[in-house]
Amino acid sequence: MAQFDVYHVDGTLLLDIQTDLLGLFPSRLVAPLRKQDIELSPHHRLNPRLTVLGEPHVLVIQHLSAVRTSILGRPVDNLDRYYDEIKSAYDMIFNGF
Protein backbone atom coordinates (compact mmCIF):
# COMPACT_ATOMS: atom_id res chain seq x y z
CA MET A 1 0.00 0.00 0.00
CA ALA A 2 1.27 3.40 -0.91
CA GLN A 3 0.29 6.94 -0.09
CA PHE A 4 -1.98 8.37 -2.80
CA ASP A 5 -3.11 4.95 -4.05
CA VAL A 6 -6.77 4.88 -5.05
CA TYR A 7 -9.03 1.95 -4.12
CA HIS A 8 -12.52 1.01 -5.28
CA VAL A 9 -14.52 -0.10 -2.22
CA ASP A 10 -18.27 -0.76 -2.32
CA GLY A 11 -18.84 1.64 -5.22
CA THR A 12 -16.70 4.42 -3.75
CA LEU A 13 -13.23 5.53 -4.76
CA LEU A 14 -11.00 6.06 -1.72
CA LEU A 15 -7.68 7.92 -1.72
CA ASP A 16 -5.10 6.61 0.75
CA ILE A 17 -3.56 9.70 2.32
CA GLN A 18 -1.54 8.00 5.06
CA THR A 19 2.25 8.12 4.97
CA ASP A 20 4.01 4.92 3.96
CA LEU A 21 6.07 5.17 7.18
CA LEU A 22 3.01 3.96 9.13
CA GLY A 23 2.41 0.90 6.98
CA LEU A 24 2.42 -1.57 9.88
CA PHE A 25 -0.96 -0.43 11.20
CA PRO A 26 -4.00 -2.55 10.25
CA SER A 27 -5.81 0.57 9.04
CA ARG A 28 -5.26 3.41 6.57
CA LEU A 29 -6.49 6.99 6.56
CA VAL A 30 -8.57 7.58 3.42
CA ALA A 31 -10.69 10.30 1.84
CA PRO A 32 -13.41 9.70 -0.76
CA LEU A 33 -13.20 10.86 -4.36
CA ARG A 34 -16.50 11.90 -5.95
CA LYS A 35 -17.33 12.48 -9.56
CA GLN A 36 -17.91 16.14 -10.21
CA ASP A 37 -21.59 16.93 -10.12
CA ILE A 38 -23.89 19.87 -9.51
CA GLU A 39 -24.58 18.83 -5.89
CA LEU A 40 -21.00 19.41 -4.80
CA SER A 41 -19.71 22.96 -4.87
CA PRO A 42 -16.08 22.32 -3.98
CA HIS A 43 -13.78 24.80 -2.33
CA HIS A 44 -10.81 25.00 -4.69
CA ARG A 45 -8.17 24.21 -2.02
CA LEU A 46 -10.17 21.96 0.28
CA ASN A 47 -11.66 19.94 -2.57
CA PRO A 48 -9.19 19.82 -5.45
CA ARG A 49 -10.26 18.50 -8.82
CA LEU A 50 -8.30 15.39 -9.79
CA THR A 51 -8.43 13.07 -12.78
CA VAL A 52 -8.97 9.48 -11.66
CA LEU A 53 -9.11 6.66 -14.19
CA GLY A 54 -9.45 9.28 -16.92
CA GLU A 55 -12.49 10.99 -15.37
CA PRO A 56 -12.79 14.23 -13.35
CA HIS A 57 -13.27 13.75 -9.62
CA VAL A 58 -13.19 15.91 -6.49
CA LEU A 59 -11.30 14.99 -3.32
CA VAL A 60 -13.72 15.28 -0.38
CA ILE A 61 -11.09 15.46 2.35
CA GLN A 62 -13.60 16.68 4.95
CA HIS A 63 -15.06 13.13 4.87
CA LEU A 64 -11.77 11.63 6.03
CA SER A 65 -11.94 8.26 7.81
CA ALA A 66 -9.88 5.25 8.79
CA VAL A 67 -10.60 1.88 7.20
CA ARG A 68 -9.20 -1.60 7.70
CA THR A 69 -6.50 -2.42 5.18
CA SER A 70 -8.19 -5.77 4.56
CA ILE A 71 -11.12 -4.10 2.75
CA LEU A 72 -9.01 -2.08 0.32
CA GLY A 73 -7.91 -4.73 -2.16
CA ARG A 74 -5.66 -3.72 -5.04
CA PRO A 75 -5.15 -0.09 -6.04
CA VAL A 76 -6.84 1.06 -9.26
CA ASP A 77 -4.82 4.28 -9.67
CA ASN A 78 -2.20 6.41 -7.93
CA LEU A 79 -2.48 10.18 -7.58
CA ASP A 80 1.04 11.12 -6.52
CA ARG A 81 1.07 13.38 -9.59
CA TYR A 82 -1.32 15.60 -7.55
CA TYR A 83 0.98 15.78 -4.52
CA ASP A 84 0.80 19.58 -4.21
CA GLU A 85 -3.00 19.75 -4.53
CA ILE A 86 -3.55 16.95 -1.99
CA LYS A 87 -1.08 18.45 0.50
CA SER A 88 -2.80 21.82 0.11
CA ALA A 89 -6.11 20.15 1.02
CA TYR A 90 -4.40 18.65 4.13
CA ASP A 91 -3.23 22.08 5.16
CA MET A 92 -6.67 23.56 4.65
CA ILE A 93 -8.53 20.89 6.67
CA PHE A 94 -6.01 20.70 9.53
CA ASN A 95 -4.51 24.19 9.67
CA GLY A 96 -7.05 26.44 7.99
CA PHE A 97 -4.67 27.75 5.36
UniProtKB/TrEMBL annotation:
Q: Name one GO biological process term.
A: plasmid maintenance
- Keyword set, alphabetical order: Repressor, Transcription, Transcription regulation
- Superkingdom of the organism of origin: Bacteria
What GO molecular function annotations does the UniProt record carry, in alphabetical order? DNA topoisomerase type II (double strand cut, ATP-hydrolyzing) inhibitor activity
Classification via Gene3D superfamilies: 2.30.30.110
For whether the record's keyword set contains Glycoprotein, the answer is no
Under the heading InterPro entries, the entry gives: CcdB, Plasmid_toxin/cell-grow_inhib
- Similarity comment: Belongs to the CcdB toxin family.
Q: What is this protein called?
A: Toxin CcdB
UniProt organism field? Devosia insulae DS-56
The root-end lineage is:
Bacteria, Pseudomonadati, Pseudomonadota, Alphaproteobacteria, Hyphomicrobiales
